Amino acid sequence: MIAVLALLAGVLLGLWLDPTVPAALQPYLPIAVVAALDAVFGGVRAKLDRIFDDKQFVVSFISNVLVAALIVYLGDQLGVGGQLSTGVVVVLGVRIFGNVAAIRRHLFRA
Amino acid sequence: MSDDQSRRGPRAFTPDFLTELFRNPLDPGYADAAARRAETGRPARSGWSVGPVGLVVIVLLGFLFAVAYRQTMAEEPGRAQARSGLVAQIKQRQGETDALSTRAEELREEVNRQREAALGGSRAARLRELEASTGLGRVRGDGVVVELADAPGGQDALGGADAGPAQVIYLDLQSVANDLWGAGAEAIAINGQRLTSTSTIRSAGQAILVDFRPVTGPYEVSAIGPGGMRERYEASGSALTMRQVAKVTGLSFAVRDADDLTLPAAPELRLRYAEPAVSPSVSSSGGDESSGSGTSPSPSGGGR
Fold first, then answer.
1. B16 vs A62, B20, B25, B241, CA distance in Å?
2. Could you give the CA distance from residue B161 to residue B159 in angstroms, rounded to a whole number?
3. CB A64 within 8 A of CB A36
4. Residue of B nearest to A33 (CA)
5. What CATH number belongs to B141-152+165-268?
6. Does residue A9 lie within any of the structural domains?
7. What is the pTM of this model?
8. ∠ CA(A55), CA(A56), CA(A61), 5° rounding?
9. Which of A57, B126, B213, B283 has the smallest C-beta neighbourhood within 10 Å, fewest atoms?
């Protein structure tokens, strides 16, 4: 419950403060969102599996976002553009799907 | 499974990384942490509560989502705005270009009038003659109109782009224009665009450019010339070729006589390398009209 409230508080804070993202960071935003989604669904699934761990959640979130950003940056520098980040999206997407499927099994037994 | 891993030490990726990814999407760290907790005997947290650091991270997550949402929403109208702005700019520039070319036309007329007033008499007449034959002056007269049009396009899109209807290409227009010159034409215009001695007819992508201005079908090549021009043109290579092409592919090609054509003047001709020769040739004006011009493609008299 507290977690959901915290998430809502974050959303409201973001909408209220309405910060402008520096142009240099803009390409990283979509990938960061995907990485964060992966961390969230991983955390929820772990919770339902009763193996949730605070430290693991925090570390996985931060490292996911950082690695994703690093890969986008690397792709830019190497000149392969969006192709490396496609890889990130595919891997994280697969993980999100798998975790959501597990959550679904937990919640609906189906 | 987690026990296995913790005993084996550092977790090694199996060669089939993707299979592993599909089968077990959860971060293995959770399992490891749970095993560690089981060893130490600490109970897992109950319910939905999380520690303070976790809370901060969750707030951060929400913040990130909101910012990303805002960002995407903010970019969308920007893109649309840029697009419509560009369209508006194009329209405005086109309007400006039109206005300026009308103004240029007016000024050219004015210059001509002034020049005639200043020169007066035979010299002005000679200048007019030269302008008419080089394409810088508007001309009237009887002549021939050659009409070319693309074959009517039946089915398109699904038929594939390369199998489209037969089209008039720039080479057709070139050969028609050249053969009209050959048949004695003194002035030629394609879709109202006067040809001069330095005119180009070329293609750029799908478009045909006459003097770097696009012309679109149906094409109308008007030529002013002496009486028998049509017969001579009909016997020329391009007419025969085009008739054959038209029969085979469905292009339309027609030649007809036309009375009282008016061909516009070409835009200012700019010579970059040639310079007018000094005085003697100018002073010997009189006898034959267009011998000195050099740019006149067919120095035959009459038909004006």
1. 26, 7, 14, 66
2. 7
3. yes
4. B65
5. 3.30.70.1880
6. no
7. 0.46
8. 100
9. B283
Question: Which SS3 state, helix, strand or coil, does residue B120 take?
Answer: coil
Is the pLDDT at B3 greater than 70? The verdict is no
Tell me if ipTM is over 0.85: no
Q: Does the distance separating the beta carbons of A53 and B29 come in below 8 Å?
A: yes
Give CA–CA dist B100/A23, Å, rounded: 40
Q: Confirm if B190 and B177 have CB atoms less than 8 A apart.
A: yes
Cβ distance B62 to A102 less than 8 Å, yes or no, reads no
Domain assignment of residue A90, yes or no: yes
∠ at Cα B83 (B77, B85), nearest 5°?
Answer: 95
| CA distance linking residue B130 with residue B126, whole number of Å | 6
Dist. CA B242–CA A109, nearest whole Å: 76
Residue in chain A closest to B51 (alpha carbons) equals A54
Strand partners, B256: B145
Say which amino acid occupies A77.
Answer: Q
CB contact under 8 A, B55 and A57: no
Residue-wise pLDDT tens digits, B133-161:
888 888 889 999 999 888 876 544 444 44
DSSP B296: -
The reply to whether omega before B218 is within 30° of 0 (cis) is yes
Within a domain: A11: no
Contact B1, A49 (CB under 8 A): no
Cα–Cα distance between B61 and A46 in angstroms, integer?
A: 17
Please name the residue of chain A whose CA is at the shortest distance from the CA of residue B59.
Answer: A10
**Tokens of residue B62, six digits:** 């929400």
Looking at the DSSP bridge assignments, the partners of residue B257 are B144
